[in-house]
Design a protein that fits this description.
Layout: E1 3-6, E2 13-16, E3 23-27, H1 30-35, E4 39-42, E5 47-50, E6 56-59, E7 66-71, E8 79-83, E9 89-94, E10 107-111
Parallel strand pairs: 3-10
Antiparallel strand pairs: 1-2, 2-5, 4-9, 6-7, 7-8, 8-9
Protein name: Aldehyde-activating protein
Family: Belongs to the Gfa family.
Pfam families: GFA (PF04828)
């Protein structure tokens, strides 16, 4: 069953063509800690962007493997795109931007990105 999400103003929205996650990864790297991301990783073929990429801005840092996408209007960051450690394309959803999901019900998996 697909689920949806968006930035605050709705200019950036997506459909994820898979079941709603029950787990999320919480990374403590410098950007994830500051932004409060709760990540769910998926393959790009299951991700459908609704709206224009023109509304997106991109931020990369360190290895530049992940393109952190955020809305140029409201600043929310509903997803990122990049490569997995083994080089495969991936999309990382920020589950805090998922419609109808109570993030307090998620099993949180900590990841020590600050030490990487």
């Amino acid at each position: 069953m697909a689920f949806t999400g968006s930035c605050h103003c709705g200019a950036i929205a997506y459909t994820a063509n898979e079941d709603l996650p029950t787990k999320a990864m919480e990374c403590n790297c410098s950007i994830c800690r500051r932004k409060g991301y709760l990540h769910h990783f998926m393959t790009p073929d299951r991700f459908e962007l609704r709206g224009s990429r023109d509304a997106l801005r991109v931020y990369t840092f360190a290895s530049h493997n992940i393109r952190h996408q955020f809305c140029s209007t409201c600043g929310c960051a509903p997803f990122a795109e990049g490569k997995t450690p083994d080089g495969n394309a991936m999309v990382a959803l920020n589950l805090r931007c998922t419609d109808g999901l109570d993030v307090h019900t998620l099993q949180i998996i900590p990841y020590d990105g600050a030490s990487k």
